[in-house]
Write a structure and sequence with these properties.
The chain has about 600 residues and is an alpha+beta fold. It has 15 helices and 35 strands. β8 and β9 form a beta hairpin. It starts with a strand and ends in a 5-residue tail after the last helix.
């Protein structure tokens, strides 16, 4: 049986996982009566809830005596480390592009990695049956994108297809028969080269580990593509680090290969195939698993450096330990170290006191996913505002710049441009009509200026704007960028918030808590309408007397309070504030809880 290894690249929500569903169905990977969930490759709860791919996953289909290993890559740049490792396992890529939106920033990010590795792309224009689809424009933009990314002549001479992943068809012509995906299967088999590793069957066994996992029954497992030689169950092999240091020697207990969505045990791993190996206890991602005679490790793909850092600390508020079961710094550290082991884009550093940990990563979304996973596991944490990592080069201070692509209604484009090029110190790179009364804006903005901007952006565009961002490069430091202008309302009492008190406080600003919410001294319960912080009493009830007068018994009608999501809360806070994260609650508070310290630092106004 012949072999092909491909990765599918697409921007968030361009239909990648839905297309993989159809490829699995039409190749016969499922039984006729088998119940299969929609977006079967998004197996993680968070992936299903958010509709994005976070973890790279592999599946396998058979088509006309050819096994096709398909890797589903994350579409967001925050999970770029997954992409960089996964692309080293494939010999070709299918670039899926929305026919209405064209290539978007995350497409550009992953495609640049694929082209740099010499992979030849196949372009599939998806959703061509939508009323706003502009297939020819999207195809031209793909060519321009490849040219801008220094693609070779071979890569620029790419085949393309028109498709509808949801309807399950792909054709070479826009007005084709629209029956099934057989034309796409044939194109993959004919265009993507067979793995070059097939000629290395007689050499010693070598494999680069690209993803780490664990199984309740077989323990630690590593997945990668066999670069040379064969491996049988029971063989003794070794693990070498990236610098060639021997990590361990172990016996292979199981070899698993992808067959459809499931993994099946096989007796022998052959060159070019993507397999999972069990039996090791220390080996991890980017290590080389090889025969005992091998002393040179395989070259691992370099990983882009982190750009932001967030402090993870223990929850030391008065409400700590009431909702979560994992509250000790030791347990938090173990969990973060476990994450850093499988996610090479994250770096963990202990702070001097040992109570908190600096976690460096790619972006706010990556941090938000990690924190969300931890809170679901029962952790309680206090999270600081993200800080951008600077770099020193030739005595000059450099900061990360992000390329922001914005699609916005024409009426709101002025407000958006004013915000990103004004206080946030961005540079406008491109502005053009995007059709249907929309404008596309491309700007290069310091990463610092984008922290906390998304909520403001949605307000300015009345919720209709779409913003995508991707790491662009490093540039000289652009000076201070003002943070949140508004002050906050801080509780000065411990207890449960009273509706009457919150009603009276509404003239002071917007509330973040509702009646009966547990509050404590130092907790942020709302946003002040002015720029200073204000201490207030949310427990103050109505004084009761025997006298009743007209107007004294007004009904309490509260304006609905703001419920922050995790990412919104982290982006909202200032440097002297923290987000308290528990399995059931997200609260904001000041860093200091001591009353004397609070009085000294806040502008008290009661």
């Amino acid at each position: 049986m012949e072999l092909r290894n491909i990765a599918i690249i697409a921007h968030v929500d361009h239909g990648k996982t839905t297309l993989v569903d159809e490829l699995l169905k039409q190749s016969g990977a499922f039984r006729a009566n088998q119940a299969v969930a929609e977006r079967a490759m998004d197996s993680n709860d968070l992936e299903r809830e958010r509709g994005i791919t976070i973890m790279a996953k592999c599946t396998s289909v058979e088509w006309k005596n050819t096994r096709i290993n398909i890797v589903d890559t994350p579409g967001h740049a925050d999970f770029g480390a997954e992409v960089e490792r996964i692309l080293s396992m494939v010999d070709g890529v299918v670039l899926l592009v929305d026919a209405a939106e064209g290539p978007m920033p995350q497409t550009k990010f992953v495609t640049s990695k694929a082209l740099a590795m010499g992979l030849r792309p196949i372009v599939v224009l998806n959703k061509v049956d939508k009323p706003d689809a502009e297939s020819d424009r999207a195809l031209d933009e793909c060519f321009d994108l490849f040219a801008a990314l220094d693609a070779t002549d071979d890569q620029l001479d790419f085949p393309h297809m028109y498709a509808s992943g949801r309807s399950g068809w792909a054709d070479h012509e826009l007005d084709g028969p629209r029956k099934d995906l057989s034309a796409l299967f044939d194109l993959i088999v004919n265009h993507v080269p067979a793995p070059r590793q097939l000629q290395r069957k007689d050499e010693d066994f070598r494999m680069l580990a690209t993803t780490l996992g664990s199984d309740n029954f077989i323990g630690r497992v590593l997945t990668g593509r066999v670069e040379s030689g064969t491996l049988k169950v029971g063989a003794t092999i070794q693990a070498l680090s990236r610098v060639g240091q021997k990590i361990e020697q172990f016996r292979v207990t199981k070899i698993l290969a992808f067959r459809g969505l499931a993994q099946q045990e096989i007796d022998e791993a052959t060159p070019g195939d993507i397999v999972t190996i069990a039996g090791m206890s220390k080996a991890t991602v980017s290590d080389t698993l090889c025969a005992l005679a091998v002393d040179e490790p395989l070259e691992a793909q370099p990983i882009d450096p982190p750009t932001i850092t967030v402090t993870f600390g223990i929850n030391d508020s008065p409400l700590a330990g009431r909702e979560g079961s994992k509250v000790q710094s030791r347990v938090i550290r173990e969990r973060l170290m476990k994450e850093a082991e499988s996610n090479v884009a994250i770096k963990i550093t202990d702070t001097p006191g040992g109570e908190a940990f600096e976690v460096a990563g790619r972006g706010e979304l990556q941090m938000g996913v990690l924190i969300e996973n931890m809170r679901r596991e029962g952790f309680e944490l206090s999270i600081s505002r993200p800080q951008v990592l600077m770099r020193e080069e030739d005595g000059q201070r450099l900061e990360p710049i992000e390329e922001v692509t914005i699609d916005v209604d024409d009426d709101y484009s002025g407000a958006v441009i004013e915000k990103i090029t004004g206080a946030r110190k961005g540079d406008l790179a491109e502005m053009r009509p995007a059709g249907a009364g929309k404008t596309r804006i491309v700007a290069h903005v310091p990463a610092r200026g984008l922290i906390g901007y998304h909520g403001e952006f949605l307000t300015d565009t009345r919720g209709t704007g779409i913003m995508n961002r991707v790491f662009y490069g490093w540039a000289p430091y652009k000076g201070p960028i003002p943070g949140r202008r508004a002050g906050v309302l801080i509780s000065m009492e411990d207890g449960e918030a009273v509706a009457y008190a919150l009603w009276n406080l509404e003239e002071r600003g917007r509330m973040f808590v509702g009646p009966q919410a547990k509050v404590y001294q130092g907790m942020i319960i709302g946003e002040h309408s002015r720029d200073n912080d204000l201490e207030v009493n949310p427990l103050k009830g109505k004084k009761l007397t025997n006298v009743r007068a007209s107007g004294s018994d007004d009904a309490v009608r509260l304006t609905p309070h703001i419920n922050f999501s995790l990412e919104e809360a982290i982006a909202y806070i200032n440097d002297d504030e923290l987000v308290e994260v528990t399995p059931e609650s997200i609260r904001l508070r000041k860093r200091y809880l001591d009353p004397h310290e609070r009085k000294r630092m806040s502008k008290k106004d009661t």
